Amino acid sequence: MDYTTNPIRRLEEILNTLVKNAGSTRTLLSICYDIDPNNTPAMYRALADLIKLADECKAIMEQIADNDIYIEPVVKAHKAISNIQLKELGYDSSSLVDKQTMYGLKFSVDCYKNKCGETVINKDQIASLQKDVEELINKLVESNLPSDLKQILCEKLEGIRKAFVSMRISGIEGLKSELESTAGALFLNQDEIIRNNKDENIQGVIGFLDKLNKFVSLGNGVKELVSFAKSLIGTST
């Protein structure tokens, strides 16, 4: 699925998935997040992210909308999602919200788009970056890099991988935070990075971070950070 910066559209798409597919909330959240449905702690983290998205959407619409027709569907969706935490996660999601609410959310989506704009990023671009980070993690595990450096890089890339998984619900801010955290870790270990800058794994990580930087900047509509390659090892990708 393509990524959109419109949080109301993300909420509507997720609810549409939950309502149209027969099954428990646990099962469908596991599909949205690509996590094991039997992993209860992960399930509750996923649910918390969904509730946070609903909170964000309600606050935004109450601020920007000039007619209750745009606010009411979001308020109803917010109430429905907030109530999931009071039920067992095996609750049948098909009865979560009614058809009228789902129909009304389409107008709320357009209201946000007209007021705040919207950027859509192709799902293929997202899939390509996800593939890149998974391949980098696998290569790093088998690499001959110093163990401390290898551990730091693997931990940071794993954080980025998880942020991609949750992006559909949580938005691009999670990726931005992980990118900034990774940048900080690399600059703290800059001497070690420079000593190993000919290693293909180091070059791969830095090249990937530059691509991710551009992706996050596009999604946020802001100027990208200075090139990691230039900043860390004095070269450009």
Task: Give your account of this protein's structure.
The protein is an all-alpha fold and 237 residues long. The chain folds into two domains: 3-116; 122-233, de novo design (two linked rop proteins) (Up-down Bundle). It is 74% helix and 2% strand. It has helices at 7-20, 25-33, 40-64, 68-84, 99-116, 123-141, 147-170, 173-188, 190-195, 200-220, 228-233, and strands at 3-4, 120-121. It has a two-stranded antiparallel ribbon. Helix 3 (40-64) packs antiparallel against helix 4 and helix 4 (68-84) packs across helix 5 (99-116). The radius of gyration is 20 Å and the shape is elongated. The protein starts with a strand and ends with a helix. 32% of the residues are buried. The mean pLDDT is 85.
Instruction: Report Rg.
Output: 20 Å
Q: Structural class of the helix and strand makeup?
A: mainly alpha
- How far apart are the first and last residues' alpha carbons, in Å? 29 Å
Lateral strand order in the biggest sheet: 1-2
Silhouette: elongated
Low-pLDDT stretches? none
Short summary of the structure?
Helix content is 74%, strand content 2%.
Which structural traits does this protein have?
single chain; 237 residues; mainly alpha; de novo design (two linked rop proteins); 2 domains; two-stranded antiparallel sheet; 11 helices; 2 strands; 74% helix; elongated
Task: Walk me through the topology.
Blueprint: E1 3-4, H1 7-20, H2 25-33, H3 40-64, H4 68-84, H5 99-116, E2 120-121, H6 123-141, H7 147-170, H8 173-188, H9 190-195, H10 200-220, H11 228-233
Antiparallel strand pairs: 1-2
